[in-house]
Design brief:
Length: 274
Amino acid sequence: MTELSADLESPDLAQSKSSAPASEFQGARGTYQLSRSGLGQRWVDAITDMRASTARLLREKPGEGRLLFYVLVSDMVFFISWTLKTLVAPASVAGSMLSPDAIPLLMIAALMLRTGAMYALSGLIWGASRIAGGTGTWAETRAGTFWGAFVSAPFGLLAAVLAASIGLWEPNFPALANPYLQLPVYWLGLIPFVYYISAGIAQAQGFRMTAPTFMAMSAVAIGLTVVTLLYGIKDVIGRSHLWVSFYLLRCAPSPSPRPPCAVCSTRPWRPSMC
Protein backbone atom coordinates (compact mmCIF):
# COMPACT_ATOMS: atom_id res chain seq x y z
CA MET A 1 0.00 0.00 0.00
CA THR A 2 2.84 2.35 0.80
CA GLU A 3 4.57 1.74 -2.53
CA LEU A 4 1.28 2.14 -4.40
CA SER A 5 0.52 5.42 -2.66
CA ALA A 6 4.05 6.60 -3.40
CA ASP A 7 3.58 5.79 -7.08
CA LEU A 8 0.28 7.63 -7.17
CA GLU A 9 1.88 10.66 -5.59
CA SER A 10 4.98 10.62 -7.80
CA PRO A 11 5.41 13.64 -10.09
CA ASP A 12 6.07 11.46 -13.14
CA LEU A 13 2.72 9.73 -12.79
CA ALA A 14 0.97 13.04 -12.22
CA GLN A 15 2.62 14.48 -15.32
CA SER A 16 1.59 11.48 -17.40
CA LYS A 17 -2.00 11.93 -16.22
CA SER A 18 -1.98 15.61 -17.05
CA SER A 19 -0.51 14.94 -20.51
CA ALA A 20 -3.12 12.32 -21.34
CA PRO A 21 -5.37 13.37 -24.25
CA ALA A 22 -8.33 14.12 -21.99
CA SER A 23 -8.99 17.37 -23.88
CA GLU A 24 -9.26 15.52 -27.21
CA PHE A 25 -11.76 13.05 -28.56
CA GLN A 26 -11.99 10.86 -31.63
CA GLY A 27 -14.70 11.99 -34.01
CA ALA A 28 -16.18 10.43 -37.11
CA ARG A 29 -13.41 11.81 -39.34
CA GLY A 30 -10.47 12.68 -37.11
CA THR A 31 -9.22 13.84 -33.73
CA TYR A 32 -10.76 16.97 -32.26
CA GLN A 33 -9.54 19.22 -29.47
CA LEU A 34 -11.98 20.59 -26.91
CA SER A 35 -9.99 23.61 -25.73
CA ARG A 36 -10.14 26.81 -27.78
CA SER A 37 -12.56 25.29 -30.25
CA GLY A 38 -14.31 28.53 -31.25
CA LEU A 39 -13.64 29.92 -34.69
CA GLY A 40 -12.40 33.23 -33.30
CA GLN A 41 -10.08 31.49 -30.86
CA ARG A 42 -8.70 29.28 -33.59
CA TRP A 43 -8.11 32.34 -35.77
CA VAL A 44 -6.12 33.97 -32.96
CA ASP A 45 -4.12 30.78 -32.52
CA ALA A 46 -3.41 30.72 -36.25
CA ILE A 47 -2.16 34.31 -36.14
CA THR A 48 0.39 33.41 -33.48
CA ASP A 49 1.33 29.94 -34.79
CA MET A 50 -0.06 29.10 -38.21
CA ARG A 51 1.72 25.79 -38.52
CA ALA A 52 0.39 24.45 -35.21
CA SER A 53 -3.11 25.62 -36.13
CA THR A 54 -2.85 23.91 -39.52
CA ALA A 55 -1.61 20.71 -37.85
CA ARG A 56 -4.68 20.77 -35.60
CA LEU A 57 -6.92 21.22 -38.63
CA LEU A 58 -5.25 18.33 -40.46
CA ARG A 59 -5.76 16.03 -37.46
CA GLU A 60 -9.47 16.75 -37.72
CA LYS A 61 -9.53 15.71 -41.42
CA PRO A 62 -12.05 18.38 -42.41
CA GLY A 63 -14.64 17.66 -45.05
CA GLU A 64 -14.97 19.53 -48.32
CA GLY A 65 -17.94 21.54 -47.05
CA ARG A 66 -15.89 22.97 -44.22
CA LEU A 67 -13.02 23.87 -46.53
CA LEU A 68 -15.48 25.46 -48.95
CA PHE A 69 -16.81 27.59 -46.07
CA TYR A 70 -13.32 28.92 -45.40
CA VAL A 71 -12.71 29.89 -49.02
CA LEU A 72 -16.18 31.42 -49.45
CA VAL A 73 -15.66 33.63 -46.40
CA SER A 74 -12.35 34.78 -47.86
CA ASP A 75 -14.16 35.46 -51.16
CA MET A 76 -16.69 37.68 -49.41
CA VAL A 77 -13.96 39.60 -47.59
CA PHE A 78 -12.09 39.99 -50.88
CA PHE A 79 -15.29 41.35 -52.45
CA ILE A 80 -15.81 43.85 -49.62
CA SER A 81 -12.17 44.91 -49.70
CA TRP A 82 -12.15 45.72 -53.41
CA THR A 83 -15.54 47.40 -53.12
CA LEU A 84 -14.06 49.75 -50.54
CA LYS A 85 -10.98 50.42 -52.66
CA THR A 86 -12.75 50.93 -55.99
CA LEU A 87 -16.31 52.10 -55.30
CA VAL A 88 -16.79 53.49 -51.80
CA ALA A 89 -13.68 55.66 -51.46
CA PRO A 90 -11.37 55.07 -54.41
CA ALA A 91 -8.03 56.84 -54.48
CA SER A 92 -6.79 58.54 -57.63
CA VAL A 93 -4.52 55.59 -58.44
CA ALA A 94 -7.58 53.33 -58.70
CA GLY A 95 -8.64 55.12 -61.86
CA SER A 96 -5.35 54.25 -63.52
CA MET A 97 -5.74 50.56 -62.67
CA LEU A 98 -9.45 50.00 -63.22
CA SER A 99 -12.01 51.55 -65.50
CA PRO A 100 -15.55 52.08 -64.17
CA ASP A 101 -16.92 49.55 -66.67
CA ALA A 102 -14.52 46.87 -65.45
CA ILE A 103 -15.36 47.18 -61.74
CA PRO A 104 -18.67 45.21 -61.92
CA LEU A 105 -16.87 42.42 -63.80
CA LEU A 106 -14.21 42.32 -61.09
CA MET A 107 -16.87 42.06 -58.39
CA ILE A 108 -18.56 39.17 -60.21
CA ALA A 109 -15.19 37.47 -60.60
CA ALA A 110 -14.58 37.86 -56.86
CA LEU A 111 -17.78 36.00 -56.05
CA MET A 112 -17.92 33.41 -58.82
CA LEU A 113 -14.45 32.81 -60.23
CA ARG A 114 -12.22 33.22 -57.17
CA THR A 115 -13.41 29.97 -55.59
CA GLY A 116 -12.47 27.99 -58.67
CA ALA A 117 -9.19 29.90 -58.86
CA MET A 118 -8.40 28.88 -55.28
CA TYR A 119 -9.00 25.23 -56.14
CA ALA A 120 -6.74 25.60 -59.18
CA LEU A 121 -4.11 27.34 -57.05
CA SER A 122 -4.13 24.54 -54.49
CA GLY A 123 -3.73 22.00 -57.29
CA LEU A 124 -0.74 23.83 -58.74
CA ILE A 125 0.81 24.19 -55.30
CA TRP A 126 0.29 20.49 -54.61
CA GLY A 127 1.99 19.55 -57.87
CA ALA A 128 4.93 21.87 -57.23
CA SER A 129 5.23 20.63 -53.65
CA ARG A 130 5.37 17.02 -54.78
CA ILE A 131 8.23 17.89 -57.11
CA ALA A 132 10.00 19.63 -54.21
CA GLY A 133 9.66 16.56 -51.98
CA GLY A 134 6.37 17.24 -50.22
CA THR A 135 4.42 14.34 -48.74
CA GLY A 136 0.96 15.87 -48.35
CA THR A 137 -2.11 14.92 -50.32
CA TRP A 138 -4.18 17.32 -52.39
CA ALA A 139 -6.87 17.30 -49.66
CA GLU A 140 -4.27 18.35 -47.08
CA THR A 141 -2.94 20.98 -49.49
CA ARG A 142 -6.45 22.37 -49.95
CA ALA A 143 -6.88 22.47 -46.17
CA GLY A 144 -3.66 24.45 -45.70
CA THR A 145 -4.42 26.78 -48.63
CA PHE A 146 -8.03 27.53 -47.75
CA TRP A 147 -7.29 27.90 -44.04
CA GLY A 148 -4.47 30.32 -44.86
CA ALA A 149 -6.78 32.35 -47.11
CA PHE A 150 -9.36 32.49 -44.31
CA VAL A 151 -6.81 33.56 -41.69
CA SER A 152 -5.34 36.29 -43.90
CA ALA A 153 -8.71 37.73 -44.99
CA PRO A 154 -9.06 40.28 -42.13
CA PHE A 155 -5.64 41.72 -42.98
CA GLY A 156 -6.78 42.33 -46.54
CA LEU A 157 -9.83 44.11 -45.17
CA LEU A 158 -7.65 46.32 -42.94
CA ALA A 159 -5.50 47.20 -45.95
CA ALA A 160 -8.67 48.10 -47.87
CA VAL A 161 -9.83 50.36 -45.04
CA LEU A 162 -6.44 52.08 -45.10
CA ALA A 163 -6.68 52.55 -48.88
CA ALA A 164 -10.21 53.92 -48.55
CA SER A 165 -9.04 56.32 -45.84
CA ILE A 166 -6.36 57.62 -48.20
CA GLY A 167 -9.04 58.12 -50.84
CA LEU A 168 -11.20 60.08 -48.41
CA TRP A 169 -8.39 62.33 -47.19
CA GLU A 170 -6.74 62.80 -50.58
CA PRO A 171 -8.62 66.05 -51.47
CA ASN A 172 -7.52 67.64 -48.18
CA PHE A 173 -3.94 66.38 -48.27
CA PRO A 174 -2.46 66.51 -51.81
CA ALA A 175 0.60 64.55 -50.68
CA LEU A 176 -1.59 61.47 -50.40
CA ALA A 177 -2.16 61.57 -54.17
CA ASN A 178 1.37 60.31 -54.76
CA PRO A 179 1.01 56.97 -56.62
CA TYR A 180 4.15 55.63 -54.90
CA LEU A 181 2.25 56.01 -51.64
CA GLN A 182 -1.08 54.65 -52.84
CA LEU A 183 0.04 51.63 -54.87
CA PRO A 184 1.74 49.73 -51.99
CA VAL A 185 -1.41 50.14 -49.88
CA TYR A 186 -3.52 48.52 -52.61
CA TRP A 187 -1.28 45.46 -52.64
CA LEU A 188 -0.51 45.40 -48.89
CA GLY A 189 -3.02 42.64 -48.18
CA LEU A 190 -1.09 40.30 -50.48
CA ILE A 191 1.72 39.90 -47.92
CA PRO A 192 -0.27 38.12 -45.15
CA PHE A 193 -2.18 36.20 -47.83
CA VAL A 194 1.04 34.70 -49.18
CA TYR A 195 2.60 34.16 -45.75
CA TYR A 196 -0.26 32.29 -44.08
CA ILE A 197 -0.91 30.15 -47.13
CA SER A 198 2.82 29.35 -47.26
CA ALA A 199 2.83 28.32 -43.59
CA GLY A 200 -0.25 26.15 -44.10
CA ILE A 201 1.25 24.48 -47.16
CA ALA A 202 4.59 23.88 -45.41
CA GLN A 203 2.79 22.09 -42.58
CA ALA A 204 0.55 20.11 -44.92
CA GLN A 205 3.49 18.97 -47.06
CA GLY A 206 5.76 18.15 -44.11
CA PHE A 207 8.41 20.75 -44.90
CA ARG A 208 10.72 21.55 -42.01
CA MET A 209 10.83 25.31 -42.65
CA THR A 210 8.28 27.80 -43.91
CA ALA A 211 10.77 30.28 -45.37
CA PRO A 212 11.50 28.42 -48.65
CA THR A 213 7.79 28.05 -49.41
CA PHE A 214 7.16 31.69 -48.55
CA MET A 215 10.04 32.86 -50.72
CA ALA A 216 8.88 30.79 -53.69
CA MET A 217 5.29 32.00 -53.44
CA SER A 218 6.46 35.59 -52.89
CA ALA A 219 8.53 35.42 -56.07
CA VAL A 220 5.52 34.21 -58.05
CA ALA A 221 3.24 36.85 -56.48
CA ILE A 222 5.74 39.66 -57.15
CA GLY A 223 6.17 38.50 -60.74
CA LEU A 224 2.42 38.46 -61.35
CA THR A 225 2.04 41.87 -59.72
CA VAL A 226 4.79 43.42 -61.83
CA VAL A 227 3.34 41.93 -65.03
CA THR A 228 -0.10 43.21 -64.08
CA LEU A 229 1.19 46.73 -63.41
CA LEU A 230 3.29 46.82 -66.57
CA TYR A 231 0.69 45.32 -68.87
CA GLY A 232 -2.17 47.15 -67.20
CA ILE A 233 -4.94 45.52 -65.24
CA LYS A 234 -7.33 47.82 -67.05
CA ASP A 235 -6.39 46.19 -70.37
CA VAL A 236 -6.68 42.68 -68.94
CA ILE A 237 -10.15 43.23 -67.50
CA GLY A 238 -11.17 45.38 -70.45
CA ARG A 239 -10.41 42.57 -72.90
CA SER A 240 -12.33 40.10 -70.75
CA HIS A 241 -15.25 42.51 -70.57
CA LEU A 242 -15.17 42.83 -74.38
CA TRP A 243 -15.31 39.06 -74.91
CA VAL A 244 -18.14 38.64 -72.38
CA SER A 245 -20.14 41.42 -74.03
CA PHE A 246 -19.55 39.93 -77.48
CA TYR A 247 -20.71 36.51 -76.29
CA LEU A 248 -23.86 37.92 -74.69
CA LEU A 249 -24.77 39.92 -77.79
CA ARG A 250 -24.22 37.02 -80.17
CA CYS A 251 -25.82 34.25 -78.13
CA ALA A 252 -28.63 36.00 -76.29
CA PRO A 253 -32.02 35.59 -77.97
CA SER A 254 -33.99 38.61 -79.13
CA PRO A 255 -36.23 40.00 -76.39
CA SER A 256 -39.19 40.23 -78.77
CA PRO A 257 -39.89 39.42 -82.43
CA ARG A 258 -39.03 42.29 -84.74
CA PRO A 259 -39.23 42.85 -88.50
CA PRO A 260 -36.25 41.82 -90.64
CA CYS A 261 -33.25 44.08 -90.60
CA ALA A 262 -33.03 46.59 -93.43
CA VAL A 263 -29.41 45.63 -94.12
CA CYS A 264 -29.79 41.87 -93.80
CA SER A 265 -33.31 40.92 -94.85
CA THR A 266 -32.71 37.18 -94.71
CA ARG A 267 -32.22 36.96 -90.93
CA PRO A 268 -34.22 38.27 -87.99
CA TRP A 269 -33.09 41.51 -86.43
CA ARG A 270 -30.49 41.30 -83.67
CA PRO A 271 -28.53 44.16 -82.06
CA SER A 272 -25.20 42.46 -82.81
CA MET A 273 -25.91 42.28 -86.52
CA CYS A 274 -26.90 45.88 -87.22
